[in-house]
Amino acid sequence: MTLEEIAAQTLQLESLTEESLTRGLMVLTNIDSDLARILETLGTPPIWSRKPGFATLLCIILEQQVSLAAAKAVFNRLSEVVVTLTPENFLTLDDAQLRGIGFSRQKILYCRGLANAVTSGQLDLSKLERMDETTIRTELKRLKGIGDWTVDIYLLMALQRPDVFPKGDLAIAIALQKLKNLATRPTPAQLETMTQHWRPWRAIAARLLWHYYLSNTNSHKQIRV
C-alpha cells in the first residue's frame, strides 16, 4: 500500500469535525467557484449529525422515498410507543401495531429484518463504526431494504465520514442542476462522475448542496437531518 493510499484510508475512518469542515471547505471552494459562491452567499453549512445506532438506521429506512415530514411523523409515533427504541423492544410490536403507527408492509419487513440482524449478532453496529466504508457498505447491504442511499446517509450523518456522497439523493441532484445550470437533472451515475474532483471532501460538498437547496426551497422535506 502506498503512502497516499494509507493517508486516504486514514481520512476515510476519521469523523468530520469543525476543524476538518473548515479545512474541507477551503479545499472545495478553491477548486470549484460554484461551491465558493454558496459559501460566500449562505455561509458555512451545518454539520448535520445523528447518533449512530439502531434507532437512526431505522429512521433512515423510514425516510426512503418519502418526505422527511412523513417519515418523522411515523418515527415520532413509534418513539411514543417504544420509549427506549432498541431492536429487542421493536421486535415486541406485531404487524398490526406497526401498521397503526404508520409503517408500510415493506418498511415492517425491512425494519424487522434490521432488528433481527442486530439481536442475532449478524450485525454489530458499534463495530461498524470502526470499519472502512467499503466494509460498512457490504455489511449493511446484506440486509433486505438497505441500499446505497441508506448507507450513504448513515455514513454521512451518523458516522460523519468526510468523503461520502449520496448520489441517489433527490435534493442533491436538484441543487446541482440549478447550481451548474444544467438542462436536465443529473442521474446518480452522472453525479458520481461529476463530483470526483471534490474528493476526499464530498460529504462537505453534499452539505453545501443541501444548504443551497434549502435556501432555494425553504423546505426540509428532502433533507435527512
Which outline best applies? Answer: globular
Q: What series of H and E elements makes up the topology? A: HHHHHHHHHHHHHH
Low-confidence stretches are 1-10, 219-225
What integer is the average pLDDT? 91
* Class inferred from helices and paired strands: mainly alpha
Radius of gyration, rounded?
A: 18 Å
Amino- and carboxy-terminal Cα gap: 36 Å
DSSP helix fraction: 55-70%
Largest sheet: none
**Strand portion:** under 5%
Q: Please report the number of helical segments.
A: 14
Count of extended strands:
0
State the main characteristics.
225 residues, mainly alpha, 14 helices, 63% helix, disordered C terminus
How would you briefly describe this protein structure?
With 225 residues, the protein is mostly helical. The chain has helices at residues 3-13, 18-31, 33-42, 54-62, 68-81, 87-90, 95-101, 105-120, 125-128, 133-140, 148-158, 170-179, 188-194, 202-217. Residues 1-10 and 219-225 have low confidence and may be disordered.
